[in-house]
Amino acid sequence: MKYFVYCFLFILAFVTTSNRAFSEPVKTSFGGLDLIGEHVVTEGRQPTDKTVLILHGTLAHLGMETIKGMQEVLMDRGYNSLSVNLSYGLSGRSGMYDCAVPHRHRYGDAVLELAHWADWLAAKGVTDVTLLGHSRGGAQAALFGATNNHPLIKRLVLLAPATWNRDKAAREFKKTHGRDLAKVLADARGLAKNGTGSEYMKGTGILYCPGANVTADSFLSYYEPSSNFDTPTLLPKIKHPVLIVTGGQDTVVPDIAMKVKPLTIKGAVTLVTIEDAGHFFLDLYAEDVVDAIEKFDPPNK
Global pTM? Predict the structure, then answer.
């Protein structure tokens, strides 16, 4: 009996003194799937207060170090937050996407799921949301901002958001999958045109998953040439203030600062570069990111 009492007291102490916040896993149903998230309400804040909605990068999840670190620092600085997992077509998905699982998700699914999570926050009484996305999740957040005028979203924070161009996409696909992108696109288009876009292209590969089975529709959603993949192209279409945070040592998206800088002249986009940070803003660089967020929009504003 004493063991259980000690465990209870330890957990209680951890929640009330270490976390200094109310944190809970949440689940909601959307499109026949369970979506999961982690909701943090900081000490001294109400669940209805300003909240940061956080989206991870490619095939990742809310428990990855970049997202957890960001959420912890935001908590320390007085921000409520909700980190979410994209479903990628799987119910209750957690952890990194298993490349062995056939891919039928689409790039634009992120926009629909973000809108659902914004509705979830609205149902909780939240009226002011900052949308924060990392890497490809940053580009998907930008696409959301450019195409969805959800009343709760007041501003965007994009961490090392993805850029895109046709030649780079072809080179990267060839390097990762050993195949010519133009040929695979032609095959996928043929299936889609014949009404069999839901058919799996076995062993084709997608994103970071060489040899993966993927539907033609899913493949086209990520590789059919489109400016919707390119954050700088989307920025002028976003009606809300946008903060772009880049890492000076980022080798994944090394061109984002250069491409975004001309857009800062008009004042709608703020650019902050953390000189020594890499793509994932690990360890103390999360503090630098939240410094920039605080200056951009303080939690009690």
Answer: 0.92
